[in-house]
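Hello,

I think I submitted the pyridoxal-5'-phosphate job twice by accident. Can you confirm which output corresponds to this input? Input:
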Amino acid sequence: MLPTVSHGDGVWLYDTDGRAYLDGCSGAVNTNLGHGVREVTSRMREQMDAVCFAYRTQFTSQPLTELSRRLTELAPGSLGHVQYTNSGSEGIETALRLATLYHAEAYRPFKCTVLTEEPSYHGMTAGALAASGHPVRRRGLVPLLANQATVAKVRPRHGELRADVEQWERAIEEIRPHNLAAVVIEPVGGASSGAAVSDPAVLRRLRELADRHGFLLVADEVMSGLGRTGAWFGCDHAGVVPDIMVLGKGIAAGYAPLSAVLVRDEVAAAFDRPLSSVLFGHTMAGAPLAAAAGLATVEYLIAHDIPARVQRSGRHLRILLEHLAARHPVVRDVRGLGLQLALGLHADPARTPGVSLDLVTAARDQGLLLYPAGIDARTESVMVAPPLNSTEAELEELVLRLDRSLSSLVPDPAPQVRDLAATR
Ligand SMILES: Cc1ncc(COP(=O)(O)O)c(C=O)c1O
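Support: Only one job matched these inputs. Its output is below.
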């Protein structure tokens, strides 16, 4: 039975029985500012009193225009066009549609294969799920997904979590580059790999190959975008500008449904009409209320220089998690970037997901929320991804509760490991 939520305050959520839960995973790695942030809620209240909805083909709104200006200023390179959607899945769907239409527009209809990675997660709508390397979430849906997209998958080498440069090159050669419409990649993984980081050399090589062969590079920054990894965007760590960047989750930080697809000027220029009339869209997309929430969130991120803050707090949290890893044999590794972190777990291959769900349950008993991730024993993990404005004391409280959760999950660490940890 799930608890009934009563209210939230900063990194804390409370249920109707008065129990407090420290949010160690920002909901689904989306409530990036925590709960009840006045700068956001008051802006939303003002907008609600003014107008909640105006249809995107009839009006734009001041918060939407301003949000687009902010996003295109923050984004690298010439990602100068923004198309709004309501969820990460819809954003990915839109990116897939755009890649297909882009090649059709230039009389290259044969360029229709999309290459993605397994593990990866791009969303639950049919196209996004077809593009996802997440067998657990695809289970039973193959008949629905088969015709949704022509998708190929690149897989990491045995024992690795992400594909390396050679694996990507080989996959592209096998498909034949002239068939390739787009490559979709998560700079840092989420639900599928548990914060496994793509080698920056992979992103750089994909950029080169995209330029050479004319396919589009799509960065799925739904989770990693807008400060989560200690940079404005996950791609920034590699110095790479994608052709399409999809933002979601943290863009309105859980205050309203909103996502955005940023498109390079060169791609938009391939059409003889505005992108909005190429792509069509969704009824609620970019409505004034969601736009106000998004604008207030992004302005908060800018005003508090959140990427720099996440670099510092991410380093601090990582060190604390490494100490935990040394104390608890069930922890295989600590991975991720910034505050998009995860504990890789030693899983039982006969029962996956298993240990991650046990840990999430044990943590909830300790008043701590964690997000389970992984598609198999190799990737099984829990994400540790607190709000980006968490204080040091809050991060330490998180680790204390996580330590207790791990202890309640397995017998105490071997005495010699414990003694060793105590000497640090
Ligand atoms: C990288 C990534 N892409 C896409 C999605 C789908 O987003 P949504 O759940 O908002 O549809 C998610 C959600 O977890 C995600 O992590």
